[in-house]
Write a structure and sequence with these properties.
By secondary structure, the chain is of the alpha+beta class. It is 16% helix and 32% strand. Strands 1, 2, 3, 4, 5, 6, 7, 8, 9, 10, 11, 12 and 13 form a 13-stranded mixed sheet that branches. The longest helix is centred in the first third of the chain and has 9 residues. It is globular and about 50 Å long. The protein starts with a helix and ends with a helix.
Length: 378
């Protein structure tokens, strides 16, 4: 149990602190539907055993955290900088396409513009139609033999902005500080879904409850809602509004910059392939004592982070220089920060961030004073 708590990294923190998010989106659940009753362990088993490898659909996002909305496009906004902050503000719509481990496309539909993230093997493109700019990233891809050896039972895929990716980060947090229940079923994107609720048993966190909507047929998470303490409406939500589980057209994963586009080339180091032993055929599925690895989640220490506290009250500390320079120098981030002793802070109904003058960063789904206490203890 302690091992799980030490490795837990709150679901919304990784995209913010490390700027890996491009878009997250909102749950629009339909009318209640009738489904056979299932226990929490049975729904967790469905998620762990989902075999969905390809999909296309529309995702929508809504964030009501009490923060100023960040403009997605415009003069002086660097590609990827605004997107790393967008998950905290406003509403957004995107088309998402996934085909296997290393093919994915996200089309973010901005007013009067469009941004595209295209991943195809070792090539990734980010295109912004607002200024006709493109960034090309090259990253080594593990061979199939390496994947078979290290992930014999896993289904690797890009860490895409989908309900599945978000849900698995929260599921990795399940431990003794979490009550897991199954509520009423409903319809999401026209598909019947079970509602799995995670309720923190901690007074230290800003989170009241997390609802994960799980496809009754495939076990694929279709939506996630996060409620903050003292708020009736979700502070953050992400869901499919349309979903097709057939394989997308292969041409969607090919990208050529438009004529006249400004292209920037970048190379990224290879991402280590985690070691994950194959389970026995009759082994138990992830449950309340599962580690993050059981749901495909990485140890935050791989990013140079340290974690203090337990479960939902955990605080992630990043050493100086961990956050991308583009993010830290962003005028959009500056709009959200307030001066505090020894640095600056971002506070919201669900998330707090403390940026110290020495460059260290503390993040948590906790009140600001909890971060300040963690910083003072180091």
């Amino acid at each position: 149990m302690a091992r799980a708590r030490q490795r837990w990294l709150p679901a919304l923190l990784i995209p913010l602190a490390l700027a890996v998010a491009v878009l997250f989106g909102s749950v629009q659940a339909g009318a209640t539907v009738s489904l056979p009753p299932k226990t929490a362990d049975e729904v967790l088993a469905m998620i762990a055993r989902t075999e969905v490898r390809a999909l296309s659909g529309t995702v929508e996002q809504a964030s009501e955290l009490g923060l100023p909305e960040v403009p997605a496009v415009g003069p002086g906004i660097a590609p990827g900088t605004a997107s790393a902050l967008e998950l905290l503000t406003g509403s957004h719509t995107a088309r998402v396409y996934v085909d296997g481990p290393f093919k994915a496309r996200v089309q973010i539909l901005d007013p009067m513009a469009e941004r595209d993230l295209v991943v195809n093997g070792g090539d990734a493109w980010f295109y912004n139609s607002a200024d006709n700019s493109a960034t090309h990233l090259s990253v080594p891809v593990p061979s199939r033999a390496e994947l078979r050896e290290s992930l014999p039972s896993a289904s690797p895929r890009p860490d895409m902005p989908t309900p599945e990716a978000m849900a698995k980060r929260f599921l990795a947090a399940i431990d003794a500080t979490t009550e897991v229940t199954v509520g009423g079923s409903s319809s999401v994107a026209g598909r019947s879904a079970y509602r799995l609720s995670l309720n923190p048993r901690s007074s230290e966190t800003l989170v009241d409850t997390v609802d994960i909507y799980v496809d009754a047929e495939t076990g694929l998470p279709l939506g996630v809602q996060v409620r903050a303490n003292g708020q009736d409406e979700p502070a953050y939500s992400l869901a499919f509004t349309e979903l097709n589980l057939s394989t997308p057209d292969a041409g969607l994963f090919n990208f050529t910059p438009p004529p006249g586009a400004t292209v920037t080339e970048k190379a990224l180091p290879a991402k280590p392939v985690p070691s994950m032993p194959a389970p026995e055929p009759d082994s138990a599925v992830p449950g309340p004592d599962a580690t993050p690895e059981a749901f495909g989640q990485a140890d935050p220490k791989q990013h140079g982070a340290t974690v203090s506290g337990e479960g939902w009250g955990a605080v992630v500390a990043l050493p100086a220089g961990s956050a991308p320079a583009e993010l830290m120098s962003s005028p959009q981030l500056a709009q959200m920060l307030q001066p505090v002793s020894g640095g600056k802070a971002l506070t919201s109904s669900l998330l707090s961030v403390l940026i110290l003058d020495d460059g260290r960063i503390f993040v948590g789904m906790v009140p600001l004073d909890r971060l300040q206490s963690a910083a003072a203890a180091q």
